[in-house]
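Here is one chain, start to finish.
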Amino acid sequence: MIATGRLPQVVHTFTRSLFNASTARQLPIKSLNDPSVLTFQREAFDPEVPAILYKTFSDYPAIEKWFSQSPQEATGATLRYEYFDSYGEATVPLEFTSTAQDSFQQFRAPLKFFLEWTRQAAPESNDRFYLAQAPISDLPESLRGDLPTPKIVSDAGKGDIYDTNLWIGLAPTYTPLHRDPNPNIFAQLAGRKVVRLFSPDDGAEIFNYVQKSLGRSGSASFRGEEMMNGKEKSVLQAEVWGSQEGAVPTRGTVYEAVLGKGNALFIPKGWWHSIKGVGNGMTGSVSVLQVTSFE
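Its structure:
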C-alpha cells in the first residue's frame, strides 16, 4: 500500500508484418467502418480474426463527459475534474509503477487520490499511477451510465458480456503480453494507444521462449507483478516491442493497431496482446470483455 501523502510527480493503422530470418512484408488487415451487428459477426467474430472498428464508439457518452481536448497538443487530453470530483470517495483499483526504482504495486484507494495525482503529475516523471482494470460494475451508477453496453453487443440477441473494465492513465502506460479467456472489444475513449497482437500459437511461442530463457514455467496471468517489473518485464517487452521505438518482433506474425478516441479493436479469443499508451496527456479505454455468443 502506498501512503496517500506521497505523490510523485489520429492516426489509425492496422497492419500485419511477417518476419523470418530472410524476409519481411506488410499486409493490410480488415477494418470495419461503423459495422452492423451482422457485418461484425460475419467479418470478424465468426472467423475469429482481429479487426479495427471505426466510429463504433464515437458517440459513447464518456468520451465527451469525462475528457476534454488538451490545447497543447492535438492528440492530448485532460480529465474533466469538475465532473469527476463529485465521485472522489468511490474506491478504485490503482497501480503504481516506478521505472527509476523498477517497482510495481497494486492497491485500492479513493478516486480522489488518483485525481489529485493527475493534477500534479509531471509528464517527464518516472512514476505513474494507473487506474487499471477497474470493473465497470464497481463504479457509481452515474459513471456506469456513461459506459453503456455498445449496440454491437446489445443488439446481438444473445450477445453476452463476460466482464467490462476501465483504464485511465497519464501516458505513457503499459500492459504486458497476455491473452484473455474470451473475445474482447477494446475501445479508446481518449488519447492514443498502440496494440500489438499475436495469434494463439505465435503468442504462446513468444511467452514460452521468455519463460524458458528465465528458467521459469509461468502462465500468462494478467498483469502479474512479475510481468510488470524486473527481468521478466524487460525480456518480455524486448521480445514484443523491440529495443527501439518502431522495432518489429523477430518471432511469428505481429499485428499492430494505433487507436484514437471513438475507435475500437476486436481481439479474438486466445489472441495475445500488449498495449502501450503513447503521446501526451490522459489516455482512457474501456475493455468490453467479452462478447461470448451471438444468436
